Amino acid sequence: MEVILKQQVKGLGKAGDLVKVSDGYARNYLLPKQLAVPATADNRKLIETRAKDRAQKQERHDKKRREIADTIENLTCSIQKQVSDDNKIFGSVSHVDIMKCLKDNGIELEKKQILLDKPIKTLGIHPVKIRLSKGLEAVLKVWIEKSDS
Q1: Domain final position from 33, 61, 89
Q2: What pTM, to 2 d.p., does this model score?
Q3: Which of 17, 39, 47, 57 could form a disulfide with 13, with the two C-beta atoms 3.0–4.6 Å apart?
Q4: Quick one: 78 and 136 in the same domain?
Q5: b vs e for 31-50, b when ≥16 Cβ sit within 10 Å of the residue's Cβ?
Q6: Rounded to whole angstroms, how far apart are CA atoms 9 and 25?
Q7: Predicted confidence (pLDDT) at residue 149 exceeds the cutoff of 70
Q8: How many domains does the chain contain in total?
Q9: Domain range spanning residue 23?
Q10: Does one domain contain both 79 and 98?
Q11: What is the mean pLDDT of the chain?
Q12: What residues contact 143, with CB distance under 8 A and at least 6 apart?
């Protein structure tokens, strides 16, 4: 019997997959627990429509992420810090400072998306990788400058 899975079933497939199983497994387990539906023509059309909708939604999401990546690539964050007489920063620049700078420029990110191995402790330009999604990263130029005060 062919069924369409409504949700992931370990060892069988994920939601939306068309799988062939024994009649007893379908009748006694998958259908009563509402893990699958029979693979009728109407159900196949419905699944195809949902798959197209998911693909279009994913495409829009990816396009938006690529636009954000382009914005980040063209952006330069300038962070001012107090420094000592020998140009050493008091404290350091961390994820929080970079998140604040991005937020000021209209980009909301989570801390884990900023790939900063260790806090920045020197003046100058520092490239910081930003992971927007799996396989999509952007490099932000962070300028650490001496504050006037």
Answers
A1: 61
A2: 0.66
A3: 17
A4: yes
A5: eeeebbbebeeebeeebeee
A6: 12
A7: no
A8: 2
A9: 2-61
A10: yes
A11: 90
A12: 76, 77, 78, 79, 124, 125, 126
Q: What is the pLDDT of residue 22?
A: 94
Q: What is the mean pLDDT of residues 122-141?
A: 91
For 89, the token pair is 């920063």
pLDDT at 48 over 90: no
- Both 53 and 119 in a single domain? no
* 75 and 44 share one domain: no
CA distance 58 to 65: 10
The band of 135, judged by pLDDT with boundaries at 50, 70 and 90, is confident
In a shared domain, residues 75 and 139? yes
Q: Indicate if 74 and 111 belong to the same structural domain.
A: yes
End-to-end CA distance of the chain: 76
| Torsion, CA 75, CA 79, CA 85, CA 87, rounded to 10 | -40
Question: For a pLDDT cut of 90, what percent of the chain falls above it?
Answer: 58
Q: Residue 69: what residue type?
A: A
Rounded Cα gap, residues 115 and 95, in angstroms:
8
